[in-house]
Amino acid sequence: MRLNARLVAIGVLACLSALPQLLGAQEPPPPPPPPPPAAPPPAAKPSSPEAPPLPPPVPPTTPTKPVAAPTTPPAAPPPPPAPRTATPAPTTDAATPATGDDNTATPAPATETGPTEIRVAPVGEGTPAPTPAAETTLAPEATDRGAAATTTMAKPESGEPEFIKGELIYVGTRRLLSRFDHVGIAAGPYILGNDLFLSVTPGMAYYGKTVSISLGAPLNLLAVEGGSFNFGGMRIRREDWNEVPDYPRVLRFFTIGRKEDNLYFTINSLRPATIGYGTLLNKYQGNIDVDRSMTGMIFDAYNKYGGFQFQANDITTVNRVIGGLVFAKPLSLFTDNILADSLSLGAEYVADFAAPRCVRTRTNKDNAAECVPGSGSRAGFDPYTGQNLDRTFARSNPDTGRFDVTKTKVHAAGASVEMKIYKDERNADIKLFGTWDKFLNPGGGSGASGGVLARLNLGTTYINAFRIQAELRSFEDGFLPSYFDSLYEIQKYSYALTDNPYQVTPTKYQAVFGDAENGFARRELGRRTGYNVEASWGVFKGSRRGKQLALGFGLSDSKGPDDTQFYAHLESPFLGFLQIFGTYMKLNEPSPKTLFKGNVLTAENAVVLTGARLEILPILFVNAHYSRSFRTVRSPGSEYHLGNDRIVDGQGRPSPYFPEARLFENVQTLFLEIELGWEFESSDDLTRREEDDK
User: Fold this and answer.
1) Distance CA 258, CA 266 (A)
2) 69 or 336, higher pLDDT
3) Is 226 helix (H, G, I), strand (E, B) or coil?
4) Does the model's pTM come out above 0.85?
5) CB-count burial class (<10 Å; 0-12, 13-18, 19+) for 334
6) For residues 350 and 127, what is the distance between their CA atoms, to the nearest angstrom?
7) CA 68/CA 7 separation, integer angstroms
8) Which residues pair with residue 553 across a beta bridge?
9) Fewest CB within a 10 Å sphere: which of 69, 157, 236, 631?
């Protein structure tokens, strides 16, 4: 409907603009102007003999007819007059239309390549209006430490598009949102495991040039209880609102700037986080558990001489995964050479100040709880005291469903260096980097990596952008690359091992660092070597804002067990009315050979996140999301038997009465929403749509 209206309007404007030309063509050619005088008037003479003679005066430019006639009578009718907007409009990435005296919009000059508007924010937030092309800033992304962060370069007059770097894909995106200013309400069925809910979510978003904000209050009303056909009473799902960190979720995001700007700040419940090259914290997602919600903060700042990155996973500070990176570019004080100036020295620190060291047993008769031990339990009862010899029972909190744990601090510090080896302003930006990190808590070890990061651009109107990171790794016992990863919020309680030597599944702390006091010896695997490769490709129309298609994958492995990590991701916003995305992750696999064996979707270490948004009418949309994510297996206050079949009686037989209970299960979620609302489009938005239609 919008397209037809725009076509009609454009046709009417074209006819009106051509009418004066048609009328002028029917008139006879205007007579030539009178010949110039034989000699210039006295006022036009040079003021002194040494001064050069002035050129002849220009013939009058205002004839008696509307159109000036040529000096020599033309043999054919004169060409149509130039448009009234002869001066080009200011060149901007937002493709602001040029306007004439009557404010009639006319297309931007042909040499300017306008961006394509996409309808979905890549990480749950809108992209602010781009910087005008005359002030294009080569701003950095998470792993480009402020390269030329304060250098502004005018876009060439030929209309060359910007050099696109930074992240091309956003692995771990959980939800699609309209990236236009909008307000509305969405409602529809929401399936979580075996339960059926009615989901009702009022929301809004505003995307300013510098500041963007989005609000939403999801209400999931239980319609049918899982495993039965009992009416749920339309009760609000209590797991959505039973902890302090759940309440800030009404703020989807508040953002100042964008990730590549000199100053970027966001409070966000949708965006994953990475610090530096991801050797400690990589694609961390605080909301991988459907029973828990966290709203985090990211703050980056850069200039020519250095900068920092900072992230916190929970603005309420109930959960405290915090990371930071500071860096300096010492040679920038002495030279403007772009390669020497790119030398960067950095230091990083990442910590979980409330990491579970162990899961605690249920309260015993003396009202004391202890860590569930990794060894020493027996099946059956003591014949003399009648007490259970199996000490691997635990009970979750009756209010929150969380587990009683003994908390400790897991923290690591490191240093890094990077330097560009090649850069041009249009096609390539290549750098070498190296990192060294060490966990500072008991049992911690160190690891090092070195590699190359390449950003490549090809094309003009449609830019093919490539981002490739490849590195070699070497690390010792007590170190795990990307320890704080996408599954950290699950695995910190229960870290599954292919060959588990303990009587229970350890926490991540116990699996990596050991916990000898509670029967978990640190595994002695020796120094391991490995690799990490990540590659992504995106197609952009004119600028980063005009993303059409993006996909990527990542694979890492080492000589040790359970070190294989894999992800694949796709984003496709180019259709405009239909947006889709999808992420598949599989972590802690025994080897690359086992990645796609068995049921890859329902594996306990697999994550699936997908979504689509379809525009039916300007005020009617359909949102669909399917995922396989995690939640606690049992309801709050339930008892779990964490022991496995290594707990045997005196005859070496495991107990048939107490099988092992997992803390988390991988469940499917599906919701289909009808969204009724309104999107507010500015003149810039409409111009971009018109450019897309062309």
Assistant:
1) 9
2) 336
3) coil
4) no
5) exposed
6) 28
7) 33
8) 535, 568
9) 157
